Amino acid sequence: MKSYHQYCSVARALxxxxxxxxxxxxxxxxxxxxxxxxxxxxxxxGIATNLxxxxxxxxxxAGLVERFDAPPPVGTPLVRLTARGRELEDxxxxxxxxxxxxxxxxxxxxxxxxxxxxxLAGALLLPGRLAPGARVVVAIESGSGSGNERxxxxxxxxxxxxxxxxxPAADVTLTGPAMLVGAVLSGxxxxxxxxxxxxxxxxxxxxLPGLVTGTATAAxxxx
Length: 223
Fold this sequence. Notes:
Elements: H1 9-17, H2 22-32, H3 37-43, H4 49-61, E1 65-69, E2 77-81, H5 83-86, H6 89-98, H7 115-125, E3 136-142, E4 149-156, E5 159-164, E6 172-175, H8 178-185, H9 191-196, E7 200-202, H10 208-213
Protein name: Transcriptional regulator, HxlR family
Pfam families: HxlR
Keywords: DNA-binding, Transcription, Transcription regulation
């Protein structure tokens, strides 16, 4: 591990997470939970397989991630964040918020777009506050043709989970380009404006406006 050799908490933190790809690996594990090596490769287009292996070894040595054997039928070791690694959620949230300004122009021709990145940004940035014991499920369908992907977010007062696949009983379903989905979930666009631009919104529980404006006072009960 490279070091700045500075007795400063910022420098010490960057000694651990400042290398390229480290925080994006954290992003992947925050978004979808424990994953296989191949899952991480899919979520990190552009990383060389030897570099990913090296970063995981370094992060494991630093106590950010750990490997464990998944029960059948997975049959392959998985990687997950440790408690220390999950403490980086606030760092990723701050970066997501800070980077919003550079998202307004949309993806470039060479940019990869993956729906679970949009979902994670929404889960981190939604300013709404749910009632105690409540839960809101937001389904996302983004892309087209073979690139179409479905996933859903489970939002609760004390955290979130993101799962691949649809959610027929979702409180809100957003269908359309990832740029529009992300703009709504981050509060950059109102749902009404996004609909005018082509987003399909099925808000059967009428909770989306409150979530994105921070005025939500109720949600579907958990369970």
